[in-house]
Amino acid sequence: MFGYIKRKIRFLFLKKKFNEGLDKNFLKNFIGLQKLIGFKISNPNLYLKALTHRSYLEVNPTLTKSNERLEFFGDSVLNMVVAKFLLKKFPKKNEGFLTKVRAAIVNRYHLSKSAEELGLDKLILFNDKYLRGSKDGFQTIMADALEALIAAIYLDKGIKKAEKFIHKKIIKSFEFEKEFLIDKNYKGQLLEYTHAKKLPIPYYKVVNEEGPSHSKKFNIQVFIGDEIYGEGSGKNKKIAEQEASRMALQKFKK
């Protein structure tokens, strides 16, 4: 009972201290968010925006902006910090190696895994009906929210705080001894394979596109010559092409 009263007082205090227009679900999670990032938030509106998926604008029409612009900015900050770290960690490695490792650290799979370990999945504001139980879709939402959160930290507290957060929550959990050795650029692998075997260059065809604008699903087939070698689906063409390429490589291995 005492715990409930304490949480209620905190909720009312935050609502009064900040902005009456802040989303009630965001305010309920505000204390947890501060614990997650490890410092006191100065501008809560930045973090509200960072954790708001565009599908949630339908749930709360008073919100007018999602995390898409912050995600764009956070992606740049993340890439810069990871690149700086890798230059120090691997002083003798070439640009190709560094690019490959950075891509493995900042890809959707590792970011969504990091976001889940942080408990960010419990803080993101989204409209569940558009996911339709899609694990792939929610992984993307979590990865995007983590990048947007990095942008919010940078804009609220500066590069030092953002860099510390990235090192502690994203880079530290990356298993350098094994993860970066797994090449997940299946499209590139397929191109290299067909070139080595003197086969026609793979080309990709969208066979189906469905869903609302904020939750698209693409189905794409990859052709080598006139034959279909693989088919994949995803929330954008890039993901679908990678999946189709992966299927094509499996077919060649068989």
From TrEMBL:
Mg(2+) binds at residues 71, 144, 147. Coiled coil: none annotated. CDD domains: DSRM_RNAse_III_family, RIBOc. GO terms for biological process: mRNA processing; regulation of gene expression; rRNA processing; tRNA processing. Its main location: cytoplasm. It comes from the Bacteria. Residues 30-158 form the RNase III domain. GO terms for cellular component: cytoplasm. InterPro entries: dsRBD_dom, RNase_III, RNase_III_dom, RNase_III_sf. It catalyses: Endonucleolytic cleavage to 5'-phosphomonoester. Its cofactor is Mg(2+). It is an enzyme of class 3 (hydrolase). The active site is at residues 75, 147. Residues 185-254 form the DRBM domain. Its EC number is 3.1.26.3. The keyword Cytoplasm applies. It holds the Pfam family Ribonucleas_3_3. PANTHER family: RIBONUCLEASE 3, RIBONUCLEASE III. HAMAP family: RNase_III. Homodimer. This is Ribonuclease 3. It comes from Stygiobacter electus. The gene is rnc.
